[in-house]
C-alpha cells in the first residue's frame, strides 16, 4: 500500500485593509504529526513596504524570500524607485517558475503598499500569481478562509483587520494539529513595517 508523504503544515493569512496589509502565520513547524519547533518564523520582510508570508518547507521559504529581497533591491537601484508590490510578486513568480522541475515546496502570500495602494498576491509552488483582497494558505487554510469570508469587508480599519486575522488563525489552530504555538504578524502601511508576535495561552 502506498504511503502518503508527510508535508509541513501551517496556517498563513494575508488581508488588505483601508491603509495597508496584514500578513500573519502561526509559529509551529510540524512534519506530519511531529512538532519540530514551536518558534518558527514564516513571515518575512522583502523591502520597506513589501513582505511575504509562507506555508511549506521552512528552508524553501527562507531561500525564496532572500532571493526576492535581493532582486527587489537591484530592481530599485536600477529604476531609481522602490519596487512595487506587483514587481516583487512577479519576481517571486519568476523564481518559482524557473524552479518548476524541482519546485520550492512553499505556498506564498506577498503583500504590501505602493503608489497604487495596498495589495496582496498569492503564489503556488509553480509561480501562478493571483491578486486578491485576502488569502489563506497552508493546512489550516480552509478553516481560516471560512472565518475571514464571513466578516471581511473592504475599507476595514487596521484594528478590525488585525482582530479578524487573529480570530481566523485561532480557529485554525484549534482544529489543525499542524498549526499552533502563537502567531507572527507583519503590518505594512505607507508609514513602514511593524512586526509583532502574539502568544497563545
Give a short synopsis of this structure.
With 201 residues, the chain is an alpha+beta fold. It has helices at 58-79, 85-98, 141-151, 158-175; strands at 12-17, 20-26, 29-31, 34-37, 43-45, 50-56, 106-114, 117-123, 129-132, 134-137, 183-189, 192-198.
What is the topological layout?
Blueprint: E1 12-17, E2 20-26, E3 29-31, E4 34-37, E5 43-45, E6 50-56, H1 58-79, H2 85-98, E7 106-114, E8 117-123, E9 129-132, E10 134-137, H3 141-151, H4 158-175, E11 183-189, E12 192-198
Helix pairs in contact: 1-2, 3-4
Query: Which residues form runs of ≥5 with pLDDT under 50?
Result: none
Termini Cα gap: 40 Å
> In percent, how much strand structure appears in the residues?
25-35%
Q: What strand line-up does the widest sheet have?
A: 10-1-2-11-12
Number of strands: 12
User: Which term fits the overall shape?
Assistant: globular
* CATH class designation: Alpha Beta
How are helices and strands ordered from N to C? Answer: EEEEEEHHEEEEHHEE
Number of helices: 4
Rg, Å, rounded: 16 Å
Walk me through the structure.
The structure is a single chain. The protein has 201 residues and is α+β, with helices and mostly antiparallel strands. The protein has one domain (12-196): Aminohydrolase, N-terminal nucleophile (Ntn) domain (Glutamine Phosphoribosylpyrophosphate, subunit 1, domain 1), CATH 3.60.20. The protein has four helices and twelve strands. The strands form three sheets. A five-stranded antiparallel β-sheet has the order 10-1-2-11-12, with helices on one face. A five-stranded antiparallel β-sheet has the order 5-6-7-8-9, with helices on one face. Strand 1 (12-17) and strand 2 (20-26) form a beta hairpin. The longest helix has 22 residues, at 58-79. It starts with 11 loop residues before the first strand and ends with a strand.
Amino acid at each position: 500500500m502506498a504511503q502518503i508523504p508527510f508535508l509541513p503544515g501551517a496556517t498563513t493569512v494575508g488581508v488588505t485593509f483601508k491603509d495597508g496589509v496584514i500578513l500573519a502565520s502561526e509559529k509551529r513547524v510540524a512534519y506530519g504529526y511531529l512538532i519540530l519547533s514551536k518558534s518558527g518564523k514564516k513571515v518575512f520582510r522583502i523591502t520597506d513596504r513589501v513582505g511575504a508570508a509562507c506555508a511549506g518547507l521552512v528552508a524553501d521559504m527562507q531561500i525564496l524570500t532572500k532571493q526576492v529581497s535581493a532582486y527587489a533591491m537591484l530592481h530599485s537601484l536600477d529604476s531609481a524607485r522602490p519596487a512595487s508590490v506587483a514587481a516583487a510578486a512577479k519576481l517571486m513568480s519568476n523564481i518559482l517558475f524557473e524552479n518548476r522541475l524541482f519546485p520550492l515546496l512553499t505556498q506564498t502570500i506577498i503583500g504590501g503598499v505602493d503608489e497604487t495602494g495596498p495589495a496582496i498576491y498569492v503564489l503556488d509552488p509553480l509561480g501562478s500569481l493571483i491578486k486578491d483582497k485576502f488569502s489563506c494558505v497552508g493546512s489550516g487554510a480552509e478553516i481560516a478562509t471560512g472565518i475571514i469570508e464571513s466578516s471581511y469587508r473592504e475599507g476595514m480599519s487596521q484594528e478590525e483587520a488585525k482582530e479578524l486575522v487573529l480570530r481566523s488563525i485561532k480557529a485554525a489552530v484549534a482544529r489543525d494539529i499542524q498549526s499552533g504555538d502563537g502567531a507572527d504578524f507583519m503590518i505594512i502601511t505607507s508609514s513602514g513595517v511593524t512586526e509583532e508576535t502574539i502568544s497563545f495561552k
